[in-house]
Amino acid sequence: MTISKRAQSETPVVSVIIPSLDGDRGGNVRLLLDDLNQQSFQDLEIIIVSGIRPQGKAINQAAAEADGEFLLVIDDDIRPGSPDVIQNLVTVLREHPDVGLAGASIVPPTDGSWLQRRLAHEMPRFSMPIVKRLTDSDMPCHGCCAISAKLFHKIGGELEIAPRGLDPDLRRRVREHGRRVVLAPDTLAYHPLPTTFVAVMKMFYRNGGSSAFLQRHYPHLVVETPESVDCRGGTENTSLRMRAFRFPLRWLGRVLRGHMLRAIGELAYATGYAIEFTRRAG
């Protein structure tokens, strides 16, 4: 476990938090650091947290070390999409005191393969619209999002008890404190998608297993996330029975729309869910 802290300003305004299991992520952390050096906003400190699980615990430990007025969480496989990403997020938080969490639109790299482009087309959260106005949305996520340090600590920081489900939980608690969750205008970050069909299926299978784990141990974290970008709040908890009832109807809808990659992936998701749920039940 290591926490590496580097100040790029004597009085940092933004603490950039990068949780990373190995501190490298196949070389992307180095590229991300290069990108941060090219940002127009440079009143920064950069905190890399390595070897800490789950992600919520890693972010909380970094936040405890942070000196900035704002916390900017960036996943270790993300690349900022322009030099003004940090400036845009800070501007939103400063000029709109009713905003609690501001995020960048997460999009796939422009040089993606056919498979990656198709996956992004079929799954809106993998390719978010780049909005032109401040937009209340359920899309902001830990891929690239900013929050004031004061609000972060006021709402209790990140959830540390579960391996996933951080995004909807953070958005919910920000809203419960009367603040908006928004996408910042003209702000994007690149997130690579799986490069092979097998990797796509593994992703769906793993996500299904993780969802089953949450259902058994932390059912209050299992919420449906809307796929429309313009949304003021996430969907409330839906019972497992209702989700199981709707699954074949939704799956058929994927097929009829020609979203075959997602349809096959959701079968892998269901398999992972069933195996994990059965194993835990036993």
Describe the structure.
This protein is of the alpha/beta class and 282 residues long. It has two domains: 189 residues, Alpha-Beta Complex (Spore Coat Polysaccharide Biosynthesis Protein SpsA, Chain A), CATH 3.90.550; 85 residues, no CATH class. The chain is built from nine helices and nine strands. Strands 1, 2, 3, 4, 5, 6, 7, 8 and 9 form a nine-stranded mixed beta sheet that branches. Helix 7 packs across helix 9 and helix 8 runs antiparallel to helix 9.
Give short descriptive properties of this protein.
alpha/beta, Spore Coat Polysaccharide Biosynthesis Protein SpsA, Chain A, 9 helices, 42% helix
Please count the beta strands (DSSP E, at least 2 residues each): 9
Number of domains: 2
At CATH's second level, what is the architecture of the largest domain?
A: Alpha-Beta Complex
CATH C-level category of the largest domain: Alpha Beta
